[in-house]
Amino acid sequence: MTRVFVVGILALAVWVVWPGENGQLVWAQEDEQTLFVRLLDSATEAPVTDLMEEDFAVWQAGVECELVSAELVPSRLQLALVFDESQWMRPYVNHVRNGVSQLLDALPEGSEVSLIATAPPASRITVDFTTDMALVRERLDEYFPWDGSLNRMLDTLHRTADNLLREDGEEGVPEGGALWPVIAVIGSNGNEMSVQVTPRRFYSLGPKLEAVLATVHWVMLEIPFGSRMQPEWAEIFTRASGGWHDRVTAPSQIAPQRMAEMGAAIAQQHALRATQYRVVFKPPDRDSTEDLSVAVARPETLIFMSQDGRLQ
């Protein structure tokens, strides 16, 4: 069998960085002995999706690894849209409705979307994961923050992560699960009023998101003299997960434009991650993820590798 040896060291997504409770960075190594591999025809750049397990080989530092499996993992987009429904969002109501409609337009067909609000159970927009975009848009028309409603973003992000961690088939969780779920936050920098806003509770959210390989995107809709807390969270979680984020300093047409851009970024990232192979192997050095390379039995093939599949 002719193999094309890829002279490329694994350089994408080997490490995940989450801030520790003392403000220092904590490095957590993922040691799953798994690679995600995306193959493109070098002439057409079309995805290569017809290879079999025997067409792959994995090498570490020049030593061939024992191959356990190699299979194509089709990925559907599973998007949790998280909305700030606090009173701080009232100046942005129409911008949110218009912008999220454009965000939905950018998503690939068949995407599963849920709507999660910061003010349950009074919220009228909550929807479990569904492919029914008509229902999603209908609920979005009900989006209207009211005076006195509080910004409970940390509580809501924990609730969203817990939902993604539930087993397939439970209420609100699609059968079959999904690799690389996406959380898109549309929120304000209004005062945070979650039940517990402590460093420990904040730092405990990162491992939950990493456990499901979630990517966080965030549009920050700012108010004058707002809190610095949420903008810092947006920076930390989007950077750590490879997501997109931006801020809008005042209500204007820039707000729906930014939401449309977030939708385009989500769709573009999903296209990169779709049609990957999950390659499971036993490396000779189980304590190292360095010097990994892949060979495939097809000439003139472009190969993109990562350890968690979250290509950017």
List its traits.
alpha/beta; 312 residues; 26% helix; 2 domains; four-stranded antiparallel β-sheet; six-stranded mixed β-sheet; Rossmann fold; elongated; 7 helices
Summary?
The protein has 312 residues and is an alpha/beta fold.
Question: Layout of SSEs?
Answer:
Layout: E1 4-5, E2 15-19, E3 25-29, E4 34-41, E5 56-60, E6 63-64, E7 66-73, E8 78-83, H1 93-106, E9 112-117, E10 127-130, H2 133-140, H3 153-165, E11 182-188, H4 199-203, H5 205-211, E12 215-221, H6 229-241, E13 245-248, H7 254-273, E14 276-282, E15 292-296, E16 301-306
Parallel strand pairs: 8-9, 8-11, 11-12, 12-13
Antiparallel strand pairs: 1-15, 2-3, 4-14, 4-16, 5-6, 5-15, 7-14, 9-10
Helix pairs in contact: 1-7, 3-5
